[in-house]
Write a structure and sequence with these properties.
The protein is mainly alpha-helical and 103 residues long. The chain is built from five helices and three strands. Strands 1-2-3 form a three-stranded parallel β-sheet, covered by helices on one side.
């Protein structure tokens, strides 16, 4: 889960980086913007959902249950966990790929 508007990187760029590491890792985008073009940009780039802030706790619970069930069902296709993603993002080889992708 990530915000679309962050100080160092926007959520769409982060989504691209996550897709580079694991195309099946679910990403939920959060934003205060409900602009249809912005929402569609997130979904078309691979976000599994797009939530408008403020987000209700019950809404988060339902979405995470859905994501968890889907991920558990599809676990045969990808073994990378969210903790594994953090490890990948901290590896020097990932940072080199990220730098090359900017070029």
């Amino acid at each position: 889960m990530t915000d679309v508007d962050m100080p160092d990187i926007d959520g769409f760029k982060f989504l691209q980086l996550v897709r580079y590491v694991d195309k099946d890792l679910p990403v939920i985008l959060l934003s205060t913007s409900g602009d249809t073009k912005v929402v569609m940009k997130g979904i078309s780039n691979g976000a599994c959902d797009y939530l408008l802030k403020p987000v209700r706790v019950e809404q988060l619970k339902l979405i995470w249950q859905h994501v968890f069930r889907r991920r558990t069902k599809d676990s045969k296709t990808s073994s990378l966990t969210p903790a594994g993603l953090l490890l990948c993002l901290s590896r020097p080889s990932f940072n080199q790929k990220k730098t090359q992708a900017k070029r």
